Structure formats: C-alpha cells, structure tokens
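Weekly puzzle thread! Below is a chain. First person to post its structure in token form gets bragging rights.
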Amino acid sequence: MTTEPTHQADQRARESVWDYPRPPALSPSNRHVRIVHGGEVIAESRRAIRVLETAGAPVWYLPMADVRLDLLRPAIGHQTVCEWKGVAVYLDLVVGDRVAPRAAWSYPSPQRGYEAIAGHLAFYAGLVDEATVDGERVRPQPGGFYGGWVTDDVVGPFKGEPGSEGW
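Winning reply:
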C-alpha cells in the first residue's frame, strides 16, 4: 500500500544542517516566502537567497524590492559582525503602534563571496507574526541569536539549542 505525501516537505529531500558547509554557502531559491506582521504582508518573494552554514537552519534573504521598506526603520546603535559576511545592520519593523525591534537585518557591503546578499533583508521568524515557506509556517532557530528558519525539510540538531554553546 502506497500513501500519498500529505505535505510539500514530504516530497522534498530532507536536508541535514550538518551537511551545510563552513564557510556558509549561498543558495538561490524560487520557493514562496511570505512574512506577515500586524495584519500586513511585510514581504513576499520567490527570489530569496538561502545562506546555509554548518549546524544552522537556513537564513532566508529577500530582495528589498519584495519587502515593504516603508514599514522598516534603522535600529539605532545596533550592528553585529559575521566573520564571513561582514557588518550587519538592523532594522525595526513598525506596523501601526507595534514595533518589533531589530526584526530584520542586512549586509549593505558584504565581504567577498557574499556580494549576492547585498540589497537583501533577512527577518527573525520569532519577531514577526508569521513567516512561511511554500505555505508552511517556519519555526525560529533555537536560542534567539541565530536567524535561521526551521522547516519540516531541514533537520538538526541546530546550533542555539541547549548544550550547543561549544559547537
């Protein structure tokens, strides 16, 4: 007896984050990515770039042309540095009276090898009301620091889970 897949992830090969490289790889995707917050569609794209790094869930970078930039403002005085991608700047998401501090980030001048993510934004799934990939609601990568999106077709363990501090 054969059973039909019940979810799109069942039709795709599962990816182990332990097969992702270090330094991270860039992987263009035509999957449907959507972000909603405060009843507004913040972003919708089929032109994302996934950043894949060992032990981390994929981080989805969306072209700024596919994002409601009018709902974002610079997060004053906050930036981080990635040894591979360079200096990240953060943005607050503002929808009406609701502010999601540092909900998005970008690399305006990424280091060599990561130029493709210039002009793109990533969002923390845990700081928006809903983030989906092909209709599947994503889960934030554990720990709150990393911005990876966990979907049914990605398996861990993931950096950020309890006990992973030394990885």
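Puzzle host: Confirmed. Bonus trivia for everyone else. The chain has one domain: 13-150.
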